[in-house]
Amino acid sequence: MASEYMKNIKHFRILVMGRANAGKTTILQRVCNSTDKPEIFDGKGNKTEDVVVQGTLTRGHHDIKHELVFKSNPGFVFHDSCGFEAGSAQQFDQMKRFVVDHAATTRVNERIHVIWFCIPMTDYHRTVTAAEKKFFNECDTGHVPVIVLLTKVDALYLAAVEELVDGGLTIMEAKERAGEKQGELLEKWLAHIKMELNKCKFPPRDYGTPEDASREYRLHCFDAKHSKCHE
User: Fold this and answer.
1) Average pLDDT for 192-221
2) Are residues 149 and 227 in contact, defined by beta-carbon separation less than 8 angstroms?
3) Spatial strand order in the sheet of 67-69
4) What is the chain's alpha carbon radius of gyration, rounded to the nearest angstrom?
5) Is the four-CA dihedral 35, 36, 41, 42 of positive or negative sign?
6) What distance in Å separates the CA atoms of residue 198 and residue 203, rounded to the nearest whole number?
7) Looking at the predicted structure, is the pLDDT value of residue 231 above 60?
8) What predicted TM-score, i.e. pTM, was given to this entire model?
9) What distance in Å separates the CA atoms of residue 96 and residue 140, rounded to the nearest whole number?
10) Do the beta carbons of residue 208 and residue 149 sit within 8 Å?
11) How far apart are CA 5 and CA 12, in angstroms?
12) What span, in angstroms and rounded, lies between the C-alpha atoms of 112 and 95?
């Protein structure tokens, strides 16, 4: 049963993917209710030097095998994949091998339980690029669900104000209605993303926002609902 399966999991392991500057670190901090940077381990339980690794993370050249753990919530283990828009075929193949190995392993606590694929709304005019299509057409994650998360949705507020002003409203009027318009724009771009990615060979299992991801219970629901390994 799913409940028995979840009891055996000491660490809920999440692979976070997406473009550079997609707001991935902010999501992890929100989920773990922390403003601190994570501790980083080499996959064998050895803590790495924070100065070296954090600098590497900032530049976007890091090891997908590294485990990111927040002291505030050590039950979550995160892996961060390089953004493919700046990556090579070698990096993409490395990611695929990591996904396959950690999806198929019989060792429950080394298994990836969910993948978050982040798409930032700061780039709402290019929400689905060749990088996203490459992943969802070529990477079969098996029983591991891939959840697309729309990040940095606050960026749509300015777009909402500009669109309302272009429609004839004053700045003050536009600001009063911007929240509602922002929601409409989010729904519009979400529908576009769904339309594009659902055409792919291995489409996402679900879509959401960081607010959805920050609810710990939903993580477990995704796994219990979609993972075949507990059956």
Assistant:
1) 80
2) no
3) 39-41, 67-69, 76-80, 12-18, 114-120, 146-151, 206-208
4) 19
5) positive
6) 5
7) no
8) 0.81
9) 8
10) yes
11) 12
12) 13
